[in-house]
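TOPIC: backbone geometry
CONTENTS: sequence, structure tokens:
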Amino acid sequence: YIYMLSEKTVLSFIISDIIFVLLAILYQGALTAAVQETTNTNHRFTITSVGYNISYGLFGGTAPLMVSWISEISGIQIIPGIYLTFFAFLALAAVYRMKETYKAQLE
């Protein structure tokens, strides 16, 4: 992000976006598998789709607004990184509290 801000070229945007996508790939596959394993098979798709879409709507949809607003009032340009890191630590805490289910029988 800082590289993109300092260079202000299309190439810097593409490089920054590729780095972001590679980081997102690291958690997206594990997230999907973990959520599927923790829900009952009778309601698995409903629970995961509603939870996924609501959380992405709330946090992903409002992230640009919140980051822009916080950056404007604080004057700190690295707020997007701080914002993502904060929610990453919340997600890490939630994952840490999840129980292991790989030996459990599916219902």
Remarks:
- The helical segments are 2-7, 10-37, 44-74, 79-97.
- The mean pLDDT is 82.
- The longest helix spans residues 44-74.
